[in-house]
Amino acid sequence: MSQFSNVSVVKKANIYFNGKVVSRTVLFPDGSKKTLGIMQPGEYEFSTGAAEEMDILAGDLEWRVKGEKEWKKASAGQTFNVPAHSTFLMRMETVVDYCCSYLP
Question: For residue 48, what are the domain limits?
């Protein structure tokens, strides 16, 4: 899906890591939400409440759940899932455009 219809967008941006990661929250009529964002090159650590599905729209990154040893790769057109109540690490050498879906 290349666009979302009949949604609301929260005006205030989510800004992390001194502006190196920025996203906007998109709210759907069914109560679900997603964030659309850009990550600048770097290494980042995030914690989750809900399970998350990360769709990589452009760029390449490596990721792993904290405590795991193996880094996994994700590139444009790929998706990966992060468990609820976990911490995950991401690192990238290029700008990454992403869509994060918060799963029930």
Answer: 8-103
Q: What pTM, to 2 d.p., does this model score?
A: 0.93
Report yes or no on 41 lying in a domain: yes
Q: How confident is the model at residue 104 (pLDDT cuts 50, 70, 90)?
A: confident
Q: What Cα–Cα distance (Å) separates residue 90 from each residue in 33, 59, 64, 77, 80? A: 21, 13, 7, 17, 12
Q: For residue 11, name the pLDDT band (cuts at 50, 70, 90).
A: very high
Number of domain units in the chain: 1
Q: Is 100 left (phi over 0), alpha (psi -120 to 50) or beta?
A: beta
Which of 81, 36, 29, 27 is CA-nearest to residue 54?
81
